Amino acid sequence: MNTLAMLIRKITFLAIFILSGFSWSVSAAPRIPDSLTQNGLIYCTSATGFSFNPQSADAGTSMNVITEQIYSKLFEIKNNSAVVTPSLAESYTLSADGKKIILHLRRGVKFHHTAWFTPSRNFNADDVVFSLNRVLGHNTSLPEFAMLENQISSTDKQRKIFHELAKKTRFPYFESIKLNQKIESVQALDPYTVQINLFMPDASILSHLASQYAIIFSQEYALQLNADDNLVQLDLLPVGTGPYQVKDYFRNQYVRLERNDNYWRKEAKIKNIIIDLSADRIGRLAKFFNGECQIAAFPDVSQLGLLKNHGEHFQTLQTEGMNLAFLAFNIKRPEMQKVEYRRAIAQAINRHRIIKDIYYQTASVANAIIPSVSWAATTGDGSQNFAYDYDPEAAKAFFKDKNLSLNIWVINEEQVFNPSPIKTAELIKFDLTNAGVKAQVRLISRNFLTEQLRNDSADYDLILSGWLAGNLDPDSFMRPILSCSSASEITNLANWCSPSFDHLLDHALTTTDTRLRAIDYNLAQKIVLSELPLLPIASVKRVLVSSTQVQGVDMTPFGNINFEKLSFRKGQKQ
Questions:
Q1: Residue 307 to residue 316: CA distance in whole angstroms
Q2: Burial of 227 (0-12, 13-18, 19+ CB in 10 A)
Q3: What is the CB-side half-sphere exposure of residue 100 using CA atoms within 13 A?
Q4: Model pLDDT for residues 400-433, shown as the tens digit of each residue
Q5: Angle formed by the axes of helices 421-434 and 392-399, to 10°?
Q6: Which of 247, 264, 292 is the last residue of a domain?
Q7: 145 pLDDT band (50/70/90 cuts)?
Q8: At what angle do helices 125-136 and 219-227 cross, to 10 degrees?
Q9: Domain that holds residue 188
């Protein structure tokens, strides 16, 4: 292609981008058209952690707005169990040695037709190979363009650098589970058959491929963007195979979704969906009461009592979540290396008061690492004894004359596992002060924390954090926050490493028998609860409120809702 032709192509593409995606750059959203609010559903949620690509979003954040609506995955989690059910993969087989997974793909699945992309073919094996290779850090599906340095202008050099950075997008979730140490290679055997080659047998792989992060992209779309040195658009203007596709997006204001009439499953009943991102927790509930949205996610739980007077119009949905809020002890700090100090700090903290004052009883005190909703959780009512529960007198006696001073860091952002981290940190500081420990709370940003960890200069003693898993498999829960391979990373903030713990995690992957796997995970959990690199605080319920005029609202432990299953009651909106 000559220079003039390339220039014309880029100008044409830019014109299309401006016409179709101009709303991406404006700072204030216009009024939502009445035709949409009267003939669609409005879902109010948080803009925190919002991304059109859950793969590149921060690990542990909620992507419930995106994954189930725009994209499809190879597998889905069935009935909140260890069983996964095929989705884009119609079926699969496992080799006798457990090191090869053969996926037989569904035929006739169409990608979205949008203002920025018109597919020329249906979903096939190339899309699976590209999507998996991308998160593995393999760029084999995208060609490189050979250019001589003396023939490249300074502008082209800058564009090439930007292009290479787009290729090197980080994928926090898959990095946290070390997926590139699990999957050796991915190859297409024919247009509808894919072989995944594993380094070692790994019983968690299918669960990871069913997580909210494991979406499938169009390789054809990626190749088109790659040819235009604009691969970054893959994460900004989404193209998937899900029940809805993006029509408009106004940053931090709203996303307009339109029904995908070529969806490979049963067509969604509601044509237009507005995802309102503009309000905080209290604001979302206010909008809900005013009829400005039919569903409100993550409402201010302190205000849920207001719904009691309107029970015939509203319903509250709660489900146990695959999450954990915790206080991590930085094992790199001299005092935090002493297990007796960690245990005494645990005894000083009134976790029951945190549940009452922060979560308003929409969470339970966590006496374990594995959330109760996981198939590997211990049987019973979940109220197992915790050896280092609140005992202020014991803590005060231990710290007498110790003259201990601690730095507590807290990331200044709301998360599913902690709606008010600053207030939580202040409650912990109060308890520690009563036990004779001097504590200073420091508010930080996630970017600051990442930089400090990268430079090995993070000087916190304690840090308030948590984890939100994308599936019910304990491997995706325990490995990122506690394994040796994740020490000194933003997921393992305790910087803890126990070979015995890691051995149990690895051994659990050698069998597909969930009962045997659960035994290993619970033995690993006992090590954690004994050595206490982190103090579990709360397992949080996922909460949303919905108008009773909406039918089919069913929330998963990950906060996901399948909009394709929603409908309005007869005589209501259509």
A1: 8
A2: middle
A3: 10
A4: 999 999 999 999 887 888 989 999 999 999 999 9
A5: 60
A6: 247
A7: very low
A8: 60
A9: 3-247
Measured CA to CA in angstroms, residue 167 lies from 56, 70, 119, 262, 321 at distances of 12, 22, 22, 30, 33
Asked if the model's pLDDT at residue 310 lies above 70, the reply is no
Residue 552 maps to a domain: no
Residue 272 domain-assigned (yes or no): no
How many structural domains does the chain have? Answer: 2
114 pLDDT higher than 80: yes
For residue 548, is it within any domain? no
**Residue with structure tokens 């739980």?**
301
Please name which of 133, 230, 229 lies closest in space to residue 183, comparing C-alpha atoms. 133
pLDDT in tens, 374-395: 999 975 444 456 889 999 999 9
Q: Contact 461/469 with Cβ under 8 angstroms? A: no
| 348 shares a domain with 219 | no
Q: List the structure tokens of 563.
A: 């909009």
Q: Mean of the pLDDT values across residues 24-37? A: 54
Give the phi and the psi of residue 376 in degrees, each rounded to 5. -95, 0
Read off the pTM.
0.82
Burial class (CB in 10 A: 0-12, 13-18, 19+), 506: middle
pLDDT reported for residue 36: 61
d(C-alpha 287, C-alpha 299), whole Å: 11
Tally the residues of the chain.
Answer: 574
Residue 314 has pLDDT above 80, yes or no: yes
Which of these three, 230, 247, 264, is where a domain ends? 247
Same domain? For 124 and 39 the reply is: yes
Q: What is the residue-averaged pLDDT of the chain?
A: 85
pLDDT for 28: 47
Backbone phi, psi, residue 275, to 5°: -95, 105
SS3 372: coil
* 48-60 residue pLDDT tens: 767 888 887 765 5
**CA proximity to 416, closest of 170, 64, 131:** 64
The verdict on residue 153 lying in a domain is yes
User: Is the alpha carbon torsion for 483, 485, 491, 497 positive or negative?
Assistant: positive
- Domain with residue 380: its CATH number is 3.10.105.10
Burial class of residue 355 (count of CB atoms within 10 Å of its CB; 0-12, 13-18, 19+): buried
Q: Which amino acid appears at position 309 of this protein?
A: N
